């Protein structure tokens, strides 16, 4: 899953400043108990158009007003040096990564998907505002590049769509500009 030419990566300095601001906001959200871990999607198997399947192992959400400009953000990456049982260790420790994203402007929720049949991890987010989702993904790239296989990081922003709409009716994720077998497109339940 090589980087699509339209995918932006922030310069490292800009990305790390954004992550630092996010962590400050995240600490405030956590202190006010506005971050929670719903269980409704945990264990659900998702099937993607590239032929892969992945299990949702965690959901993270923030108590906030419903999004005015909903969009779905799908992120994919393959971790370096993580094999076998180390995948379960990553899933357990990944809760510590929560402050790296919940404080970004526009964050609504994230489904954490375990490594799929091709070894890729995915995050399936709902965001308020496609520009804010794109900004987050451009900063996240710099965090992920530290632990990911080079060339394995990809993301896709789908404006005008709530995450739960995509889960209920994956055909809503179709775009005319991209092939039906795109890595980011959900199919019906696995």
Task: Detail the topology: elements first, then pairings.
Elements: H1 12-31, E1 35-36, E2 45-47, E3 53-62, E4 70-77, H2 86-93, E5 107-113, E6 121-128, H3 130-144, E7 154-159, H4 163-168
Antiparallel strand pairs: 1-3, 2-3, 3-5, 4-6, 4-7, 5-6
Helix pairs in contact: 1-3
Structure summarized in a few sentences:
This protein is an alpha+beta fold and 190 residues long. The chain is 26% helix and 23% strand.
Q: How large is the count of helical segments?
A: 4
How far the N terminus sits from the C terminus, by CA atoms, comes to 21 Å
Overall spatial form: globular
- CATH fold group: Alpha-Beta Plaits
> How many domains comprise the coordinates?
1
Total count of strands: 7
SS-derived structural category: alpha+beta
Summarize model confidence as the mean pLDDT.
85
CATH top-level class = Alpha Beta
Strand content: 15-25%
CATH architecture: 2-Layer Sandwich
Report the helical percentage: 25-40%
Major sheet characteristics: 7 strands, antiparallel
Which radius of gyration do the C-alpha atoms yield?
15 Å
Low-pLDDT parts are 1-5
Order of helices and strands: HEEEEHEEHEH
What does this structure look like?
26% of the residues lie in helices and 23% in strands. With 190 residues, the protein is α+β, with helices and mostly antiparallel strands. It has one domain: 2-Layer Sandwich (Alpha-Beta Plaits), CATH 3.30.70. Strands 1, 2, 3, 4, 5, 6 and 7 form a 7-stranded antiparallel β-sheet that branches. The longest helix is centred in the N-terminal third of the chain and has 20 residues, at 12-31. The two termini are 21 Å apart. The model is unreliable at 1-5 (pLDDT under 50).
